[in-house]
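Section 3.1: Structural characterization of target chains.
Under the original work plan, the team committed to producing a structural model for every single-chain target entering the pipeline before any wet-lab resources were allocated. The record below documents one such target. The sequence was received from the expression subgroup and is listed exactly as submitted; it comprises 400 residues.
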Amino acid sequence: MVANPVVGVVYHWLGGLASGSFYVPYRGVKRWAWETYWLAGGFFSWMIAPWILAALLTKDLLTVLHQAPWSALLWTAFFGLLWGVGGLTYGLTMRYLGLSLGMAVVLGLCAAFGTLMPPVFRGEFLTQVAGTASGRVILLGIFVCLTGIAMAGLAGLSKERAMPPEQQKQAIEEFNLRKGIGVAVLSGVMSACFAYGLAAGDPIRAITLRHGTKELWQGLPVLVVVLIGGFLTNFLWCLILLGRNQTAYQYFTARIRPNGRKGETRIETAIDAPSREVVEEAESSRFARTAVMVEAPPDSEVRAPMLRNYLLCALAGTTWYFQFFFYTMGESQMGRYRFSSWSLHMASIIIFGTLWGIAFKEWKGAGTRAGVLLALALFLLVASTVIIGYGNFLGVSHPG
């Protein structure tokens, strides 16, 4: 199959749309704690959807995984586990730096490390990237992407300054630059490990291609292994919260106990992992015996819509998985510069996540300056995907 970077960019946009949209169904989940609905959706994200689609679209999935070198399987899963750590520590970054600054630092580091380190480790950066015209165009696109992320952070800071004083105080209540930068570096680097996991899975790709899998689907068996690692991290953290907050019963009964916590069912960021809610829910565990989400007379019974919640979690989790389903498809179309897929992925996530935020009026009243910065950020991020796509096109059409 001949690489087609234009089609690859479209696939990455579809992945970004899935990532920026997956939290929307969670908004409809009622009277469940964060850890309850995140783990319910996570089973579809990390286990059910990856295995079903890989089994349907690739050849001899179990045989391929059995034939894969143990080193490839272990490193791929290990990087997935580290990626899960990055997602969880993202919440601490929000706590110490605030949502906007934290997002800019983490996503910038994640985009830079996730994009540039794979060719560096392969020894290809100086010769095939910096040493070629097409590679330098891609580097320009990556720089534009990072600039767009920075502009998005500045827009968020401007929005926060437009808040009433009470909200500003709440937003920066635990601001700590030293701790925040330290955690942000950890989160950004760990979050980039998803890209490392995909690179570590190259031997699995080679085996599935030998078994007759189409090149378009070659990344799906790798996703199965990466997401096993990500599942372990999130599963263990959710188990801790389910036990600490006594919320595991919510999976089995519609009746909400009086000692349930007031939960937030809205994922506030476009990042493809748990974010601010992780810290907020963990910190609120000491309030586990407060009122339920809605006030009700003492003798009444508050019930959760079980079927609706499960269906919405299944939809959210499956939508989350489709970001990487389309990511692997896009990566297969990018030719020898497939490492640039990570920047395309991050840019697309922020673009569509921001558009959802605008649709839900999260930027209402943010002020003219924030609006201008946000528009500039979106322009730069879209431009970066075009530039990176063009660089890949040059690499395909003029490989020398």
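Residues 38 and 313 are 8 Å apart (CA to CA).
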